[in-house]
Amino acid sequence: MGVFFPTIGEHKSGEHAAEFATLATQPLSKHDALRLIACPDDELPALLAAARAAKEALKPGIITYSRKVFIPLTNLCRDYCGYCTFRRDPGQPGAHTMTPEEVLAVARAGEKLGCTEALFSLGDKPELIFPEMRETLRHLGYKSTLHYLEAMCELVLRETSLLPHPNPGLLSAEWISRLAAVSPSMGLMLETTNAALLNKDAAHDNAPDKLPTKRLRSMEEAGKQRVPFTTGLLIGIGESLEDRVDTLLAIRDLHDRYGHIQEVIIQNFRVKPEIPMSHWPEPSHGEMLRTVAIARLLMPRMNIQAPPNLTGPYHDLLDAGINDWGGISPLTPDFINPERPWPHLEQLRLRTEAKGQKLIQRLPIYPEFIPDVLTRENLSSQKLRAAADPQGFAQDKRAA
Ligand code: SF4
User: Fold this and answer.
1) Biggest alpha carbon distance in the chain?
2) What is the average pLDDT score of the chain?
3) How far apart are CA 283 and CA 392, in angstroms?
4) Cβ < 6 A, ligand 1 pocket
5) Same structural domain, 92 and 166
6) What is the domain extent for residue 42?
7) Burial, 134: exposed, middle or buried (Cβ in 10 Å; 0-12, 13-18, 19+)?
8) Which residues, in sequence order, are bridge partners of residue 187?
9) How far is it, in rounded angstroms, from Cα 376 to Cα 296?
């Protein structure tokens, strides 16, 4: 796709200007991506200008977000990622599996506040290593965490106007199909393609579900079934700059083959005192901006998202080419990064407008993916039809 970069000449001249100008006419090569993701500060304005122009060519003048409630169905997890504050072992303070009544109470409270997404976040298959979780599931009447998740997605669909978006970890072909009947989209962060992070003392030491080949297999299966899929990178967990580019290219490759990646999240590692990686350095704001910009230039036709509560000043991300802020809750905290509250929606709207963009509430499925999902007849598509406005955004657009 050709992109016009109006401000390149203002920042660069001569050889560099010519180099940036070629971005306008050719897809970004891996070689260029590797060079630009490490570009010096004096080249950053031109890189950002190129990324911003690519975003404007895709979705001019708008930035979307999803008004959501966060439903941490269970924080028990069989993995032990070095950066995670969400997971618990049974018996640890805060360990909890929500009851159906609790799920419905959160969903109904969100519905009153104009939310349209129920984001189900949960640990990966805790019953495989914890007898306590097997007992909890038996008491609730379900064979596995995924069976329980499926039932809770259906409960939210039946009883509220919210649309579920589950993030349950690795999924088989069968489970992608089952969950697609009760949710219009689902997600799994690829995080990184660097399998060495599973080595001793690395971020994914003792996190078997973070093996990149397994995650790519789940993502590919979703592609074969044409399920709109959310994925992304987690930067700053021990990967190299080349790993970041490789991870973006792996996501792009899957989307080129199946067309199902509805959004790519660029998330940055945040240090917390209680995690095994408490001594690790955080990626800098500049690294975050460079990664977002490279993602935009590698994937100029795809939705690029970065959360506003994990970096600052967050409105800079608009200059790096994002077109979406992700899920923002007026009700529930970010259980993954509880020390980093989401910005107030009114503040987010004002900062977005200050950059010349209109903030629009979307559903947990992007408008361009809705027609395909509506060709299936199931509870999820019925509720989606009712939730979407003629442009495919959220019907219930409260003032931010
Ligand atoms: S990041 Fe996810 S998979 Fe890893 S420990 Fe936390 S909940 Fe489990």
Assistant:
1) 70
2) 92
3) 35
4) 77, 79-81, 84, 86-87, 123-124, 169, 207, 209
5) yes
6) 8-58
7) middle
8) 230
9) 31
